[in-house]
Amino acid sequence: MGSGIAKNIKALYPEMFHSYRGRCQKGMFRPGDFFIYRTDTHGPKWVLNLATQDRYGGGGPHASTDFIRQSLTGALSALQHVKKAESVKVGLPAIGAGLGGLSWEDTEPIYTEIAEMFPEVTLVVFRDYIRSHCPTEIL
Prior knowledge:
This protein is of the alpha+beta class. It contains 4 helices and 4 strands.
């Protein structure tokens, strides 16, 4: 959580980051995993933490389309179960594209596939994350 949108989320939700870091240190958050954090900071929200990379830093792609698919599918399924009959709207950056080393062309079909798997979930993917232009209700 040292760059991109993750860095901003870390600053907004420090308690969530402590939980994330603890899970990582204990080996409880591995590629393909997810965990959902409920917060009332800045209004009620569910923050989805997705493990989509096998390592961070250095050159080359670290994100995996399999990890993206596995973690996002699991998180949406769990979130849908928790929220029950409520409508679910999820906003996320183009995870894996850019800093993760993959391209939009690599990741876009995954979002289309997952959106078709969860027709009752509104999935909004922001291709280009620019902090100053990100709606505050998303963060």
